[in-house]
Amino acid sequence: MGNVREINNFNYEQEVANCKTLEDVTGKDGLIQKMIKNVLEQMLTKEMNTFLDREKHERDENKAAKNYRNGTYPKTIKTGFGDVTVHVPRDRNGEFQPEAIQKFQSTEPGLESKIISMYSKGMSTRDIRDHIQGLYGTDVSPSTISNITDKMMEEACEWFARPLDEVYPIAFLDAVHFKVKSDSHIQNRAAYICQGINASGYKDILGIWIGENEGAKFWLGVCNELKARGVKDILIACVDGLNGFPDAIRSVFPKTEVQLCIIHQIRNSLKYVASKDQKEFMKDLKLVYKAPSEEIALSELDRLSSKWGKKYSVVFDSWLNKWTELSTYFKYSPDIRRMIYTTNPVEAFNRQLRKLTKVKTMFPGDDALKKSLYLATIDIMKKWTSPVQNWGIALGQFTVTFGERLNP
Fold first, then answer.
1. Strands 185-197, 167-182: parallel, antiparallel or unpaired by DSSP?
2. Which of 40, 54, 139, 325 suits 226 as a labelling partner, its CA being 20 to 30 A distant?
3. How far from the centroid of its chain's Cα atoms is residue 150's Cα?
4. Helices 125-136 & 109-120, crossing angle to 10 degrees?
5. Beta strands 185-197 and 82-91, pairing class
C-alpha cells in the first residue's frame, strides 16, 4: 500500500484529495464524519475480537464454543459534526455489549455536554433543537434533549445532599418564586436558597429547596437539613423581614446572630409614606441606618419619630419591634457592615437565576424546576473563584468576636 492508509475500505489520502472546500471536510458526509465512522467501527471490531477471543475470520477449534459473529446492524449517533451511521457488530448469542457505543447511547458525550450547557444558560428546548440543527446539521428531538438533561438529576440530588462545612461565618437566606404546572394547574413555587460564605471567604450555595409558599415553618426545615448535613454553627444569618424567621433560625442554631435586611425594611416603610413626603423622609431615615453606632442610630430614630411619628406611626412601630435584629450590624466595622446589612448578595444570585430561566415562563413540574436551578447554579458558581472583598479584615474581626466558634 506504500504510504496510503487503507483501513476498512477507508482510504485516508484519497478522501483528503477529494476535499475541495471546508464543507467537504466538516459538512454532511464530509471527511470528519467518515473518519468518525471509520474509527468507531475499528473500535467496535477490536471489542468484538476481545469478546470472542479471536480475530474476525478465525474459528475456534473448540466446537463447544458456538458463539460467532452474526453480521452488523446500523446505529446512528448524533455528534458535533452531524449524524454518523455506524455498523455495530453483533454475535449469534446476543451477548456482546460494546463500550465504545453503549446499548442505548444515541448522542456523543461532547454533544450532550453542549446541550446541557445551553440548557443551563436558559435556552428553551426548541431553541436548543434549532441551534443544534443549524450548527451541526443534527436533528435532536425535544424528548432527547429532556432525556439528556434528566441525566443530571442524579448528580443534582447528590450535590444538594453533599456534606457541608461545620461553620459558616455568614449565611444569606432568601426565596425566589417561579410558576410550576401541577395537576393541570399553574401554581407558584418558592425556591428557598441558602448562600454561605465559608471561613476562607468563598461564596457557596448550600442548598435550594422547593416549596409552595415562603414561610418560617419551611425555613425551619431548611435549617434542620443544614444541620443534618454537617453545619454546626452559623455566626451571622442575613434574612428578610418574614415574621418568625429569626426564631426559626435560632431554634436550630441558638447562638446565631440574625441581621434583618435593611433594604427590605426601608422598602416596607416607604409603602406607608405618602409620595410627597418620601424624599424628605428618606433623607431623615438615612441618618438612622447609616449612623456610626447603635446609640446614635437610636437617637436619630427617636428624632425621626418626633417629626413623623404621628403621621406614620406604623412605620416606627415596625422599626422598634424589629430593632434587635435590625441593629446587629452596628457591632461591626464598616467592612463587615457592608457584607451583612442587606440580603443583596443572595438576591443578586436570584436575579441571575431569573435571567437564566426567563425564557421558561412555566416549568412542567418541581423536578424540572430543580433541574434548571441546579444547572444554572453550577454555571453561575464557576465565576466564584476568589474570596469576597476585604475578607482578610473581616476574618480577623470574626476571630476576635467569636473566638473558638470560628474554629471548633
1. antiparallel
2. 325
3. 14
4. 140
5. unpaired
Q: Do 101 and 77 touch, CB atoms closer than 8 A?
A: yes
pLDDT in tens, 287-314: 999 999 999 999 999 999 999 989 999 9
Instruction: Please state the domain extents for the chain.
Output: 1-106, 108-150, 163-260+362-408, 262-341
CA distance 283 to 286: 5
Q: Is 301 left (phi over 0), alpha (psi -120 to 50) or beta?
A: alpha
What does CATH list as the number for 163-260+362-408? 3.30.420
Helix or strand holding residue 22 (H, E): helix 22-26
Write the CA distances from 267 to 240, 270, 272, integer angstroms.
Answer: 11, 5, 9
- Give the up-direction half-sphere exposure of residue 118: CA atoms within 13 A in the CB hemisphere: 19
Query: Alpha-carbon torsion 89, 95, 100, 103, what sign?
Result: positive
The answer, yes or no, to whether residue 149 has pLDDT greater than 80, is no
Place of cell 470472542: 52
